[in-house]
Amino acid sequence: xxxxxxxxxxxxxxxxxxxxxxxxxxxxxxxxxxxxxxxxxxxxxxxxxxxxxxxxxxxxxxxxxxxxxxxxxxxxxxxxxxxxxxxxxxxxxxxxxxxxxxxxxxxxxxxxxxxxxxxxxxxxxxxxxxxxxxxxxxxxxxxxxxxxxxxxxxxxxxxxxxxxxxxxxxxxxxxxxxxxxxxxxxxxxxxxxxxxxxxxxxxxxxxxxxxxxxxxxxxxxxxxxxxxxxxxxxxxxxxxxxxxxxxxxxxxxxxxxxxxxxxxxxxxxxxxxxxxxxxxxxxxxxxxxxxxxxxxxxxxxxxxxxxxxxxxxxxxxxxxxxxxxxxxxxxxxxxxxxxxxxxxxxxxxxxxxxxxxxxxxxxxxxxxxxxxxxxxxxx
Length: 379
Prior knowledge:
By secondary structure, the chain is α+β, with helices and mostly antiparallel strands. Helices cover 28% and strands 28% of the residues.
């Protein structure tokens, strides 16, 4: 099967690897492990090698101050000598984006903006729900939501990025970026929750959540990571799958809503367990299965806003408190469909098998192939 020629732009990918994902308070209270810098680099090396094997020639990566850049450069340098002798893997030509990192979420914003400007074919994201949300938010801001993401789970709750071997994710990425799979074959559309706050002074604030927007009665952002269930009022979910962890798991265990399905789910909690509709045990953080008094739940329809009752509190976006609001502020939440795209790894690999994209003639060429597989003679 012939493949369309690849261009330099079409085979360039972006990489945003959060060097401090999975280091919030939930990791402490839930006895979860931290991913070391060397582990993150090994993940990247596996993904880049597989992407190169499937047609990716160049990669542009966010710089960091946590040691990822130095370890990655060292590993690639060692490999270049082995590859020259035919013993090493082949990697894309890697360059780091030209800015001085400040070790905050603004590095992610800046990298996403620059990668969009360079028109990369796709962006690999290493992190949790919060990192992926930051990338999506910036791509939407610069009107580059057509650039798809490849999510690699290295965060805490990880409801959005799926747990996959990076080698396979790199193959799917390469098949799409090189043009061997088209958008309709390779990409999955995703929903999000849009949050709008009209302040008492008339100013308007917008933000998004790609998994869940959780309303808490706590008045201050504080430690940001939301893990105590006693202050939760409501959870608005873009999708709710029972195998997830985090606040979206609450909806997943009540009324599952798959990522690909239309609509979302709203769940309202009760302050009084005796007045609750049901008490649900849900995994809201690693190793934390807690009982929650559920007052009610109902579907969310796309493009239909839900207004919160006047009361002060905070809104956690994908597990982290981001927005505080007062009694005089008006808060509304709206489910939006088909707002950004991800590379569907499983579907890409199914197409690769069906179309024979990973096959090639044996070393002896067509003549040898015909000797190994002679045509069947009809009687």
